[in-house]
Design goal:
By secondary structure, this protein is an alpha+beta fold. Helix content is 30%, strand content 30%.
């Protein structure tokens, strides 16, 4: 009741519907969070150039709890980051990598002067594997050549030689 009374007293008893909705969503998330329920934003990806894999590099990345249908590989290349995937929290340092299955809630909060590389894999590629197998942990073994994968895929995307849909077929 206190929250609702405060809402309607905002700006001399006038409040726009939009402001009310925004405040309601914020309060709802806080209340649900205290009950152990977290709401995540849905991210819809668009691979405009026909790509089925996408790579990005982020300095000082911080994002909100979200999910998308694509799988994601997260690698900390500089500094440290806090990563949440599903119901697991990780403190990640340089060289740590993680796999986030499609439709899994996750977020990344990196420390100042950090860099996080992210690879998004379209569901058309990952479905056969991700639907059949589940990793015991999102943390990937350090022995995997993930940095090499990032470089190779970036090069292929640059030259549009692989992971590009052409017509109805993928190369």
């Amino acid at each position: 009741k206190l929250y609702i009374n405060c809402l309607f007293r905002f700006k001399n008893n006038t409040i726009t519907l939009w402001k009310f909705i925004v405040i309601f969503v914020i309060i709802s998330r806080e209340i649900l969070g205290r009950c152990g329920i977290m709401l995540g934003n849905y991210e819809k990806r668009s691979f405009s150039g026909g790509e089925t894999v996408w790579v990005g590099h982020y300095k000082n990345l911080t994002n909100v709890l979200h999910w998308h249908v694509e799988c994601e590989i997260i690698t900390v290349t500089e500094g440290n980051a806090q990563i949440k995937i599903g119901d697991q929290f990780f403190h990640a340092g340089k060289g740590d990598s993680f796999f986030c299955a499609g439709e899994e809630l996750h977020y990344i909060i990196s420390e100042p002067d950090s860099r996080v590389d992210i690879m998004i894999v379209d569901k058309s590629i990952s479905t056969n594997i991700a639907d059949k197998y589940t990793l015991l942990s999102p943390r990937l073994p350090a022995s995997l050549p993930i940095n090499d994968w990032f470089l190779r895929i970036e090069n292929e995307l640059l030259h549009k030689s692989a992971f590009i849909k052409k017509g109805r077929y993928s190369i």
